[in-house]
What we know:
Blueprint: H1 40-52, H2 54-74, E1 80-89, E2 98-110, H3 115-181, H4 187-221, H5 249-255, H6 257-278, E3 283-294, E4 304-313, H7 321-387, H8 393-428, H9 442-449
Antiparallel strand pairs: 1-2, 2-3, 3-4
Amino acid sequence: xxxxxxxxxxxxxxxxxxxxxxxxxxxxxxxxxxxxxxxxxxxxxxxxxxxxxxxxxxxxxxxxxxxxxxxxxxxxxxxxxxxxxxxxxxxxxxxxxxxxxxxxxxxxxxxxxxxxxxxxxxxxxxxxxxxxxxxxxxxxxxxxxxxxxxxxxxxxxxxxxxxxxxxxxxxxxxxxxxxxxxxxxxxxxxxxxxxxxxxxxxxxxxxxxxxxxxxxxxxxxxxxxxxxxxxxxxxxxxxxxxxxxxxxxxxxxxxxxxxxxxxxxxxxxxxxxxxxxxxxxxxxxxxxxxxxxxxxxxxxxxxxxxxxxxxxxxxxxxxxxxxxxxxxxxxxxxxxxxxxxxxxxxxxxxxxxxxxxxxxxxxxxxxxxxxxxxxxxxxxxxxxxxxxxxxxxxxxxxxxxxxxxxxxxxxxxxxxxxxxxxxxxxxxxxxxxxxxxxxxxxxxxxxxxx
Length: 450
């Protein structure tokens, strides 16, 4: 007997969305977005993370669990068949009789109202949710690796710059000391220059600590233990790739795995609501059994009996349990739909935020470059005037500190621009084929290493 199948309905977009984004580029988006940076070390790190990151593998394990549950729920649509065999032998003064018994039984619930089929379809949709959750985790992981990697390169660049600034400040201390010995500078001038030197050394210590923290973070992201992982000593941030095409907002909804995840959750909730409604109606189950008994195995099939039965169960009084379950599932479905709408809006916001931040960051970098150019010219003029005694030392020191700050800010601004681009890639990214995780576990890795 075939039940009435509960259709999986398409969900229309629950919120209004713009036709297109406010900005777009000319570069065709890449499936593996990080390849746009043309950075072999980054490619290697992301490949390793997608293969060995334990958090990502655990997300795959949740997919395996969902697949197993789907198989389990599908089994309810198939008749259950069992067999039993037994034998006994008695000992007494009247003889030693034997008895053998064989039984076969089958049971099947007729899915009159589509309850079991709705449960099966909900479980299958849960598998799709788990698949998209894995894809979403992979996108997040790839962007985390890229951000950590370029933050590390930025800190290495800052360290190289700080070493140069420390040497410059040491030279300035020596010059000021000579001028102080010649009564051309005051003790205050010397102390201020020494304080500037020590402040720069303190900044270097902070950068060294940050470098270690970022190295440890990359180790964890790539599935390695901190202290047992080495990285190439890259110190140069890459140039920003051409801006990708943002496409249509409707295409984003179809492309992003987190949006597909939210979509499948709505459909799964609808199926569970249908199952809860069907649970209020009568259930029809069929059963059949064949039993045979005999004092010996040779004649076991000569004495048998067969039974066929049907049961119709109609809920009458349940204290409102089934009605409450229907209402609960309806609320879950409504929540899923609202979450889907919110996720769409958040996705649009992430793209627009990244576009706006990147545009403004480019303007900031242009401003910093101009400021640095003016600072260099001002420093030359102020030093000359100081040498001739036209201005005091504080003006020289202030200009020196400003110029060194600008040098560091330019590096940070370039890294921040790259980070905004990574956020844009992440907000536009779709899924890609992931490695096979079937044998990815702690036990399998220990066997490989052993």
